[in-house]
Amino acid sequence: MARHKSKAPPKVTRQPKKQQPSGAERSSLYARREAAKVLHTVLRGDAERRAVASIKSLVFSPSVRNKRGTFALVCETLKYLNVIKDVLEIANVLNSKWKRQEPLVYIICYDILFGKETPSIGDAEKFLVRRKDALLSGLATLLVRKKVKSVEELLDLSQLNGHIKPRYVRVNTLKLDVDSAVQELEKLYKVEKDETVPDLLVMPPGSDLHAHPLVMNGRLFLQGKGSSMVAAALQPEAGWEVIDACSAPGNKTVHLASLMKGQGKIIACELNEERVKRLEQTIKLSGATNIEVFHGDFLSLNPTDPSFAKVRAILLDPSCSGSGTITDRLDHLLPSHSTDNTNYDSIRLHKLAVFQKKALAHALSFPQVERVVYSTCSIHQIENEDVVSSVLPLASSLGFELSTPFPQWQRRGLSVFTGSEHLLRMDPVEDKEGFFIALFTKTNKTDNSKPSEIPGRECRRRRKQFYPFLWPKVFFRAWNGRFPY
User: Fold this and answer.
1) How many C-beta atoms surround the C-beta of residue 209 within 10 A?
2) Which of 129, 155, 181 marks a domain boundary?
3) pLDDT for position 2
4) Among residues 109, 320, 377, 459, which one is catalytic?
5) Does residue 2 fall inside a structural domain?
6) In terms of Cα–Cα distance, which of 214, 253, 264, 200 is closest to 231?
7) Judgement on whether residues 171 and 194 belong to the same structural domain of the protein
8) Which domain of life is it from (predicted)?
């Protein structure tokens, strides 16, 4: 009987296990995606002149987890953006799919061409890494075309040099007292109390507190000195009703809440939907419970509406050029600042000033208001002294006069009209940022009568003072979200 040989079991070829990405690789991948989202928002806003927020505000919002990595990637990519765009055009490696994801492509190209490590995971990363030689060849071609020897010669880094300023931190006194904050921060850095703003602390340049627990839980706010001086200049009392006319991102709004000890009511106005979300996040982080968000136009509020009859103070920090904080905001890295925009800036400043005059006149028209602060982070006279000067006749007819915020402060307004010595200026060189503050206070002898109630020549005089601000509404709709607060 024949014996059947048993068949040997088939050999199983084992596939090598796919190596899992390390924690550092996953973190880098996530940072690139977060940076791409921020970059998309920044570039879109810059192209449309409709900035939702500054680069810092976007990066350090609560929704961004890897803040330090994301911030570095966005800034470095913007610094090299023109070079990256030229290299991509020369290399011609993008298909239609990746052209629709340009912000992510820019981020990855920065890592490939100028970063310390070449990205290894992610579909977009693998696509571009396979074309690394073409990208490097494109960079070499660009250097030849521009007749330079290095990438550094292609970059204008002069704007980044010499801007060293202290780190300012404002204590949210709704959650923490100043002395406790000092005690905690002294474990890391040298800490001093600011001489001008009582709840403001000063630390050495480069002090990094973005991930500090006290910042993450809203006990501390990373806020510059100029910005912190605005609410302090208004000096709202506990129990008052106050309007913050242009609130987002909300640092000044929650500072008002702290100064008012969480009492009274703050009506925080914001027209832009995206900025409303940012404002609400800031309010939630601060723990303030006396802030009511109004998603709408401050100019649409009727001063004679009974619901505003108890409003005692208004903070107006309207859209402005941001020329005093360009380096802080990192606007100098944006494409719109890389070309000669003299004509555009002149037109933009004029439009801003028109809105600023309109908004300030509106703020002064609330019958029961006793204090109004007008502030900008601009260095331009057209947005500062000229705006204040233009409303002085109206302000005087309504019982307001200019007062002097922070009398000990040395730098005052430009001498372009009588009374400019009451205005406050911060100098971009001496104070490391440019800011402007005007404080209007109502005198005891007030006359809030309307022009229609005043007979004869006086009525005509007041109409001439006021009606220049009542220009067609469509002209003023240009301000809607187009300029950063």
Assistant:
1) 17
2) 155
3) 53
4) 377
5) no
6) 253
7) yes
8) Eukaryota
How does pLDDT run across 201-236, given as a tens digit for each residue? 999 987 888 889 999 999 999 999 999 999 999 999
75 is catalytic: no
Task: Say whether both 178 and 297 belong to one domain.
Answer: no
Q: Is the pLDDT of residue 446 over 60?
A: no
d(CA 205, CA 54): 20
Are 223 and 168 in contact by the 8 Å Cβ rule? The answer is: yes
List, in order, residues 6 or more apart from 282 with CB less than 8 Å away.
249, 250, 251, 253, 254
The token duo for 64 is: 């961004």
Tokens matching residue 435 = 């800011």
Do 232 and 215 fall into the same domain? no
The CATH number that applies at residue 441 is 3.40.50.150
Higher pLDDT, 124 or 446: 124
Residues 124 and 177 in one domain: no
* Claim to verify: residue 412 and residue 283 sit in the same structural domain: yes
Binding residues for S-adenosyl-L-methionine: 246-252, 270, 297, 317
Q: Which of 257, 88, 258 is nearest to 268 (CA)?
A: 257
User: In the chain, how many domains are there?
Assistant: 3
Is 396 exposed, middle or buried (CB count within 10 Å of its CB: 0-12, 13-18, 19+)? middle
CA distances (Å), origin 385, targets 172, 323, 375, 426 = 32, 15, 11, 13
Read off the pTM: 0.66
Least confident range of 208-217, 310-319, 366-375: 208-217
Q: Answer yes or no: do 257 and 298 share one domain.
A: yes
Query: Of the residues 186, 207, 222, which one is the last residue of a structural domain?
Result: 222
Contact 355, 479 (CB under 8 A): yes
Q: Quick one: average pLDDT of 135-163?
A: 73
CATH number, domain containing residue 204: 3.30.70.1170
475 by DSSP, 3-state: which? helix
Contacts of 225 (CB under 8 A, 6+ apart): 168, 194, 196, 197, 200, 426, 431, 433
CA distance 170 to 193: 10
Domain assignment present for 352: yes
Range of the domain at 123: 23-155
Give the three-class secondary structure for 63: coil
Token pair recorded at residue 316: 């107006």
Take residue 235 and report the two structure tokens written for it.
């000096």
Identify which of 168, 199, 203, 169 has the alpha carbon closest to the alpha carbon of residue 189.
203
